[in-house]
Amino acid sequence: MAFRPLLRQCAIVPTAATAFAATTLLWPTTVVHAESPPEHVLARKPIYDNLAPSPSSKSPSKAPEPAPISSPTPTDRLASQIRRARLNIHGYSASVESSFNDLMSAVLTQERSFTSTIASLAPPRESNERIMPGALYVLVAAMSGSILTRNRNILLRATVPFAVGVGAAWVVLPLTTRNVADLVWTYEERAPLIAENHMRVRGAAIEGWKQIKLRGEKVGSWSEETIREGRKAVEGWVSKGT
Predict the structure, then answer these.
(1) How remote is the C-alpha of 171 from its chain's centroid?
(2) Are the CB atoms for 173 and 135 separated by under 8 Å?
(3) Residue ranges of the chain with per-residue pLDDT less than 70
(4) Confidence (pLDDT) at 107
(5) Which residue among 31, 70, 122, 146 has its CA within the 20 to 30 Å range from the CA of 39?
């Protein structure tokens, strides 16, 4: 029993020696130092901005040499002349096309105005006025006036057929004649001198027609009075004779 502590101490000594030997074998004896990357790796462009190399490490670059100024070749000059000619031809063709379109527009406008004016001269449908037989009557009246004045002076031969035709038109085609007169008046208003003379002639014609009607009425009343007095005288003579 007295040898048990001694045996335990003898057993601990080999165990401690084995642990020390293992620690000595596994622990590294050399020191590893960190190395910097080689220079050709730093020369490459990094993928991150913060790793970009400093400007001092770059080698100074040479300024680009100016390119020599070369004169245009004959092909270039020919191409520029062809381009200028094409632009001029295009401009002339565009101006000609625009002028032609303006001319056609003006012609169509005048045609539309002419057709609408002719249509406005016709009498309304609800009236009993017909242009075709009435125009023939007016033509016959004008020809009769020309026949009546064929042996007279040139003034009567120029004015009487026209006056007879206009009078027949006012009688046979009153609505159409009124429309024609209004149309003529619109054109006469553009010339003040002609319009003023027309108004004077019209006023004189209207006044003359009034005087003719007044004279006719006076002649008619005088003739009726004369016939009435003659009838009374004849009746008195007859009554005395019986």
Answers:
(1) 47
(2) yes
(3) 1-70, 241-242
(4) 95
(5) 31
Q: What is the pLDDT of residues 135-155, one digit of tens each?
A: 899 999 999 988 988 888 888
| Spatial contact of 157 and 149, defined as CB atoms under 8 Å apart | yes
Q: Are 230 and 224 contacting, i.e. CB atoms less than 8 angstroms apart?
A: no
Q: For every residue of 194-222, which 3-state class applies, written as one string?
A: HHHHHHHHHHHHHHHHHHHHHHHHHHHHH
Determine the pLDDT at residue 240. 73
Please say whether the beta carbons of 157 and 150 come within 8 A.
yes
How far is the C-alpha of 147 from the C-alpha of 222, rounded, in Å? 34
- Phi first, then psi: give them for residue 134, nearest 5 degrees: -65, -40
| pLDDT for 2 | 44
C-alpha distance from residue 18 to each of 6, 8, 12, 101, 235 (Å): 20, 16, 10, 118, 195
Q: Give residue 102's pLDDT.
A: 95
Judge if pTM exceeds 0.70: no
DSSP assignment string, the chain: -TTHHHHHHHHHHHHHHHHHHHHHHHS--SPPPP-PPPHHHHHSPPSSGGGPPPGGGSPPPPPPPPPPP-PPPHHHHHHHHHHHHHHHHHHHHHHHHHHHHHHHHHHHHHHHHHHHHHHHHSPPTTS---HHHHHHHHHHHHHHHHHHTTTS-HHHHHHHHHHHHHHHHHHH-HHHHHHHHHHHHHHHTTSHHHHHHHHHHHHHHHHHHHHHHHHHHHHHHHHHHHHHHHHHHHHHHHHHH-
Question: Given this model, what pLDDT does residue 111 score?
Answer: 93
